[in-house]
Structure to design on (627 residues):
């Protein structure tokens, strides 16, 4: 059974009289431990699709079944729980909380999961060490480089051991070397069995994955095996 | 509990991120709490001081006098009425009060003043203390002795001012009659605002019987009496009023006044006034609440992105709601705390300055703190609701 199942997903944004059809019927199955890239021109609906998969947004039409559960049937607290435990989001602009240090940022999803302070400290330290930032735990985001910030964000996404990591242009704001470091982390996570879906404009980033989904104007153009 | 403190320190961190703004937000609450504590405490302190002053006259004291109303005739009190009252079981002591104005003279100096005829019980009834010499005795009253006790005012104006030393033992002339001064009464020491209202006494007290024989005054102004311990004034009031109607006739009227009920009436009036003013002070708490709401609404807008991030990593609506609500409550609690400290210090200083009793109303502190917490929660709930209802992706995209 597939982990993520999208059936004829449509997303329409209504802006006054104008309707923007961001997604025009996406049907897609993703299995556990898949490693996918989504590519496509700007405005083709990549972020919209990611947000729906990550339960940050809801489709206008169609069925989304995540891990056997119909997402449209879920309420706020269940959706929040999915975002907290099952899915880890990594953003192009990192989205760390500027007033919290690296460790506190990583602890946040653990707080929402109800973990106690002691355990939280141990866990967040471990996660930071895993992304190579054990020595930067008490730095504020503004005291870290872009690559380091993204690694903190990844540690945060991993906090509650999610099955899925969704990364929307995770290397978009990074130089090639830092981007490469981030991809190494994703590679090794995928080897551990984490399902990874990432959006990218760069072929050499997409090459880390096994399959590339090409989006064109809100529709899936083709799915190809990457040249890895 | 642990979790509560974590949330607490989280809120504190958020609030201290912008100290000036947090302080300004709290200002309304600070002023409100300060006003409530100050007003109630000073009101209570004033009440206590005045009550204590009134009680210093003797808390079981009462008076009865003849009065003319439109439908009654005036029948003055006489010595038989005095005898009658004296024999009532619930009356402890009494003294009739007679008075007239006369010149009081010593050497070449004179002063016109009130001459008051009382019996020997008057001084203990009224809680008066002797400064020099002694009060007159029952014997002196019964035998029409021309002795008198003067007040401090007379001593000052007639003796001290004219460098005549020690009035006790001297003879003064009241009208045309020589009186032997046997004592000087101590001034009444009032601590409350009553002190300002009471003029300095310039009276001369003489035995009532001497008053009758020497000056031919028979009209009793009023009879002062004290009730035995534990006797309720309102019961006595009814009984005495009806007894006098029987004695003196249905068409007469006798007024009475009981200090204890006066004190009660007075204190309840003071309490009402204090509470009304405190309520007005409390209104500024409401204004403070609106201030908190405004700033928190701005804060929600400013922190939209943060809210989006938090929702994206698993915060539920309830968690966001709680976070903002907590911040509002902590803001008002800190405001209440600062207001309490300022309120207590200024109240104590004020009470010291006007030499009242130092009194801080603990009830006012409790009311102020509970009320401001409530205000914080009430007005904080609107921005908190707004924050929690934000759509995660809209919030995330907000710049
Ligand atoms: N909140 C919104 N309101 C209205 N239109 C929207 C909204 N979000 C996205 N869109 C529209 O939906 C379409 C898809 O947007 P989306 O952000 O998914 O594109 P994308 O593939 O991620 O582009 P990019 O590569 O530039 O990030 C675009 O035409 C965009 O203008
Ligand atoms: Mg995008």
């Amino acid at each position: 059974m597939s982990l993520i199942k999208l059936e004829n997903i449509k997303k329409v944004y209504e802006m006054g009289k104008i309707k923007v059809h961001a997604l025009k019927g996406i049907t897609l199955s993703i299995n556990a431990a898949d490693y996918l890239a989504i590519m496509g021109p700007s405005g083709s609906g990549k972020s919209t699709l990611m947000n729906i998969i990550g339960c940050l947004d809801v489709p206008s039409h169609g069925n989304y079944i995540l891990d056997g559960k119909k997402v449209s049937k879920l309420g706020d607290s269940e959706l929040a729980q999915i975002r907290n435990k099952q899915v880890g989001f990594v953003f192009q602009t990192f989205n760390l909380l500027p007033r919290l240090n690296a460790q506190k940022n990583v602890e946040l999803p653990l707080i929402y999961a109800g973990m106690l302070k002691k355990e939280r400290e141990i866990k967040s330290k471990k996660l930071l060490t895993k992304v190579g930032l054990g020595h930067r735990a008490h730095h504020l985001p503004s005291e870290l480089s872009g690559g380091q910030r993204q690694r903190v964000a990844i540690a945060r996404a991993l906090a509650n051991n999610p099955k899925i990591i969704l990364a929307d242009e995770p290397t978009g704001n990074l130089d090639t070397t830092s981007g490469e470091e981030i991809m190494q982390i994703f590679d090794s996570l995928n080897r551990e069995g984490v399902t990874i879906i990432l959006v990218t404009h760069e072929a050499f980033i997409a090459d880390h994955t096994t399959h590339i989904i090409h989006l064109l104007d809100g529709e899936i153009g083709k799915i190809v095996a990457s040249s890895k | 509990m642990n979790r509560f403190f974590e949330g607490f320190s989280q809120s504190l961190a958020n609030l201290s991120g912008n100290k000036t703004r947090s302080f300004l937000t709290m200002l309304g609450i600070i002023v409100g709490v300060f006003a409530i504590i100050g007003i109630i405490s000073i009101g209570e302190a004033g009440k206590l001081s005045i009550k204590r002053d009134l009680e210093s006259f003797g808390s079981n004291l009462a008076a009865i006098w003849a009065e003319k109303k439109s439908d009654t005739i005036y029948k003055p009190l006489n010595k038989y009425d005095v005898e009658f009252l004296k024999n009532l079981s619930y009356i402890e002591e009494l003294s009739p009060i007679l008075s007239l104005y006369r010149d009081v003279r010593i050497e070449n100096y004179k002063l016109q003043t009130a001459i008051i005829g009382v019996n020997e019980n008057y001084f203990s009834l009224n809680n008066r203390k002797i400064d020099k010499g002694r009060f007159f005795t029952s014997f002196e009253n019964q035998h029409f002795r021309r002795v008198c006790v003067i007040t401090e005012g007379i001593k000052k104006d007639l003796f001290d001012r004219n460098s005549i030393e020690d009035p006790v033992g001297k003879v003064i002339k009241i009208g045309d009659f020589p009186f032997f001064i046997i004592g000087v009464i101590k001034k009444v020491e009032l601590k409350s605002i009553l002190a300002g209202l009471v003029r300095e006494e310039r009276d001369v007290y003489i035995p009532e019987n001497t008053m009758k024989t020497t000056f031919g005054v028979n009209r009793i102004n009023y009879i002062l009496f004290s009730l035995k311990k534990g006797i309720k004034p309102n019961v006595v009031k009814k009984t005495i009023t009806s007894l006098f109607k029987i004695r003196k006739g249905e068409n007469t009227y006798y007024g009475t006044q009981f200090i204890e009920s006066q004190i009660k009436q007075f204190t309840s009036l003071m309490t009402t006034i204090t509470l009304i003013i405190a309520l007005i002070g409390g209104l500024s708490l409401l204004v403070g609440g609106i201030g908190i709401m405004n700033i928190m609404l701005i804060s929600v807008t400013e922190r939209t992105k943060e809210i989006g991030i938090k929702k994206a990593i698993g915060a539920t609506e309830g968690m966001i709601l709680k976070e903002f609500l907590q911040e509002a409550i902590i803001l008002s609690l800190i405001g209440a705390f600062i207001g309490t400290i300022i309120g207590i210090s200024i109240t104590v200083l004020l009470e010291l300055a006007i030499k009242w009793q130092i009194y801080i109303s603990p009830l006012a502190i409790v009311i102020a703190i509970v009320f401001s917490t409530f205000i914080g929660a009430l007005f904080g709930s609107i921005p908190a609701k707004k924050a929690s209802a934000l759509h995660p992706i809209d919030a995330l995209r907000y710049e």
Notes: Residues 176-191 of chain A form the longest helix (16 residues).
